Amino acid sequence: MNDDYDAIVIGAGNAGLSSAATLQRGGRRTLLVERHNVPGGAATSFVRGRFEFEVSLHQLGGMGNGPLRQVLDQLDVTRRLTFVEERDLYRTVVPGVLDITLPAEWKGVADAIEDSFPGNRARVESFLELCHEVGNWQLVARASLHQPQEQAAWLRGLSRVRRNGLRPAKEVLDEYFDDDRIKHVLASYWSYNGQPPSTLPFMDLARILTLYLEYKPYHLRGGSQAMSSAMLDSFLEAGGDVRFNSDVAEIRTRQGTVVGVRLANGDEYDARMVVSNASAITTYTRMLDPTVVPDSVLRDLRGRKLGISGTIIYLGLDATAHELGFTAGTNMITSELAEKTVRDSMFSLGPTPYVVASCYDVDPIGFAPPRASHVAIFSVQYGRVWDTLAPEDYARAKYAYARSQLDLVEVISPGLRDVIEEAEVATPHTLRRYLGHPGGAIYGFDQDITDSWLFRDTDLKPNVPGLFLLSAWTTAGGYNPTIVTAARFSQRLLQL
What we know:
Helix content: 25-40%
Radius of gyration: 22 Å
Shape: globular
Oligomer: single chain
Number of strands: 19
Low-confidence stretches: none
Distance between the termini: 26 Å
Strand content: 15-25%
């Protein structure tokens, strides 16, 4: 078999689906190759008993006429989906210290913090103004994929962005607030980037807050699998071809230039460009002839750090969200204010001091039966901490860690354990096996300031002629950045 295509896209995750649909709808005959039997990657769901479980989506930002909405409209995806707008950003809880829910509006955040911590309104409003300015710059700049020289010209007129964007979020928060409780609340979204406030670039915190405050947080009826299926439908209706249950064994080259792919079953397909949604490590070190990979690429890979992974409990519960005490869909629960405790735990198998508990039935997405609910409990960890275990110790460690996660969630939901009907636990090893990501990394490389897209523009350039990488390994992690960046970049590829 030796079919000709204009483009071949490896991997039907968020970026792969977005790229394939953009290319095919732009008139390029495109083949999408996926090793699993369904599209989505992490954007999928699974069924246990009476429940369907959302694998990874906590909240979807950017649908209120933001960048993501614009891309999904262009791809004819929006009309196929039902979005459930959330009233709140999140609930932040530190037992005995604070319990506050922030609504999904700029003024509402200032009101809520003033109610809980009187005398701070002016500071909060000033901080949010800065977030709005820096966050909108970040969203627009990343979506438009400006080149470094364009960025420099733009930044000359944005003095507050220049001064604050690359600073640690903690440093900016310290400048605005004396109360550690307020700083903790406003930094609660840090886990969506995988870096605690001391290493999280302020521009990334500002981007996340702006994304959800300006363009609102949403869930999806039918979960992220519905969006993955809708993007696949858009691709297929435009005439695209897909091969499921198909591993790419080799990205084929001729005289150093990409000419197609070879699958594990021996089938070969020709194309003048290949877009890889696989990790950069897998793409460059496992799929390519080593002689065509520039030494500079290998040096760069050796100098980067694998990003965070996590351990997740999926619970099907024989009680409603209201009965269980869940008043917000997204709940950030920490045992104490000290960041060091959380940071240390990211490298430990000891009891977790931090969870994100997502209850998808405060604003139901349709996955739980009547009078029941389902919850995902996530803790940030680096995958390598699990590599130290002997195989015979793995199950014991996994369930001990999961019990510590349940302990924290029971702070806001006493008796949760008594109504568990279904339970699954996924560790970084699970994520590595399912996603094929080294270390089970969910956001690609470690997203501290050294890995910022401002300094890594070469990630989106063809280091091997005809090969382009689009995934969380080449842009900010999360649904919005990967889908939007893949679509915008693939629009550029249509000009080649």
